[in-house]
Amino acid sequence: MALTSCQAQSQSSTSTEASVNTDSTLNVSKSEAEWRKELPHMACFVLREKGTERAFSGEYWDNHEPGMYCCAGCGQALFDADHKFESGTGWPSFFQPAEGTSVLEESDDSWGMRRVEVMCSACGGHLGHVFDDGPQPTGLRYCINSAALSFVQSDSTSVKGIQYD
Ligand SMILES: [Zn+2]
Fold this sequence. Notes:
Layout: H1 32-38, H2 41-47, E1 67-71, E2 77-80, E3 84-85, E4 93-94, E5 103-108, E6 115-120, E7 126-131, E8 141-144, E9 149-153
Antiparallel strand pairs: 1-2, 1-9, 3-4, 4-8, 5-6, 6-7, 7-8
């Protein structure tokens, strides 16, 4: 008498290898000592101390692979490679956060400049700043430190290099 059992699909097929977290509430809270223990030096410097990596020094400013940029601190998906553009600044730049993701934005008047700081909405980690000189459609430029990001490449189901002749 089992009805429509053929509709049952395995829900577990989506891999959670990067533990992408799409919750938009601040749900990761760790002590600064815990962060320091878990994060690489540069990630800690950026995320927890609001540091800025040197231009052109990071891992991702010149990365053109398809995929998702997640928070290096907590794994929340933040920016989609589809929204990345060549800003020439030496930092990964996006014109909007990934679909369904909210980042925290707060005005930052440090260094005598009026800027808007961008933070991960899940763990509060500092990511970079957003400026209003970006390309269309948003006109925004999210200038993000590579060290605050962890890139998860899209599933490369079409692996290149294997050819059957
Ligand atoms: Zn985070």
